Here is the input.
Amino acid sequence: MSTSLETAEGWPVYHTAPAAYPQARQHVVYLHGGGYINEIKRRHWGLIGELTTKAPARCVVPIYPVAPLSAADATVPALARLLRSLLEAVGPEDVTAIGDSAGAGMALAAAQVLRDGGGPRPRAMILISPWLDASVSGAEQAAIAARHALYQRARRKTPLRWTGQTRNWKPIGPVPLDPHAHEAQALMTT
Here is the structure.
């Protein structure tokens, strides 16, 4: 596997390519999880390695800024621009967006920005345990938090940081998800 690094949207963006299959046409944009507050981890790189060598696919891995350094109002549109650039360069039929947890929520939000703008969209999306409601405001989430200490902490801090509602941050609201797009198929229709 080969790896290269470039900068896009002011962020580091890694590109991987399978050494055994240099003509691979499929591209995966992988957005790591981490509760909107944690950087990419070793386990994420393990999955990227598997996708690169066994799919085989070229992976594009943006190292997006996490809260409190950035928030949804800046990160989601930047991800949409990065995704649009790849779609225009290689064609939507060769692009799959994969997101894990918070990364899945961002992948969906970025795809919705593309859909709403009338531009090309990825051929497929794979959302791994997507965190789709960064406001953590649903009644069922309160019930889960009552049983899980880690979830209680995340419920108190993450949404405020990611949506920009902490001290010294201008409130911007939750991650901009279309409430009617609860099914991934909704993204692929206009």
Summary: The first strand starts at residue 2 and ends at 8. The beta strands are 2-8, 11-17, 27-31, 58-62, 95-100, 124-128. The first helix runs from residue 42 to 54. Residues 2-188 form a domain with the Rossmann fold fold (CATH 3.40.50.1820).
